[in-house]
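Quick one: structure for this chain?
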Amino acid sequence: MSLERPSLSQDERLQQVLEMLETRDSVQVAELAKRFSVSEVTVRNDLTELSRRGLVARVRGGVRPLQQGSAELGFDFRLRLEVERKQAIARAAAALVGDGEAIALDASTTAYYLALELRGKRELVVVTNGILVAASLADAPGINVLVTGGMLRLSAMSLVGDLGADLLRATRINKGFLGARGLSIERGLMDLNPDEVRIKQEMADACEQVVGILDGTKWHRSALLTFVAPDDVDAIVTDSSAPPDQVEAWKARDTDVVVAEVNPRERVPIRAVDLRRPIPGNGGES
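Got it. Here's what it folds into:
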């Protein structure tokens, strides 16, 4: 009797491996074989494919994220996680943006997907510290993009530091759409890297309204630093996997919560992104 009882396609297995590695230092072949009900040979082939695409590093008995020793994963890696959820959130968040507004987008992957949804807006000003967010809007005819400037952080494809903070302090923005590593009704929007937290704080302070954009997995996480306190979160756009009790708790605080329905579709095969070049500004995975 064959050990193989595949219920997932290879691409679905690869996606789940990436999702596991977002919160873990490594995953092992034996564990994955049991999880997916496939042979260890099949798992090794999967991991070889992920390594070939430049998304993981092989270690004895398994794989690890490329950024070993760092809790923060690279933009390219995170762009492949929870894609359908992020795109649903992006569509719902874009509906909150009117023509003629000035908005801020941080350098999160969800903000990148939101930028793609905004390309048809008119007379829009977008302030961002995200290199790929800016690149995705560079040729949109109705959008003016203002990049904050500062020191480049390659892992996040973001600009941080005093130059960006100084610009934001002199700017008034209608709405800010900010991703987060974690969300708590006690602590608000949280992230890990101090430089990213600082620029997010400055961005939030410059905005009349702050909108958190984060998928359901972030509701179960905490992080080292708060960048927007709970009382300063005006709205949250999330997806239908968000815990209903926590959604209701935020609503009870008079925070608007938009829950986007995810429409599963045929997954585009995972590919590594060449971060030296802008990702094409289409609405699908790149």
